[in-house]
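User: I'm curious whether this sequence folds into something compact or stays loose and floppy. Could you predict its structure so I can see for myself?
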Amino acid sequence: MINNERQARFGDQKQGAAAPDVATAWAIAKGTTPIIGITKPSYIDGLVRAITMTFSSDEIAELEAFADAANVNTRGWWEKEV
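Assistant: Here's the prediction. I'll summarize afterward.
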């Protein structure tokens, strides 16, 4: 799992987003369509924040560095290794 504290700090820089919002926005930025379980009304607010967030290529690289540090493979099956 990506370090939630670092991810949350990153989210604070993006519209006060929580770590799950950042993860959802990152997944969308990577071209995926995440399936989100909305079991609480507050989750809708987080999803709205996530779909309005944008990331620069440097920010995406930083998020992926968080994942690499946590030994998480973030590459989709369709992406070629570089």
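Summary: The helical segments are 4-12, 19-29, 41-52, 57-69. The chain has a mean pLDDT of 78.
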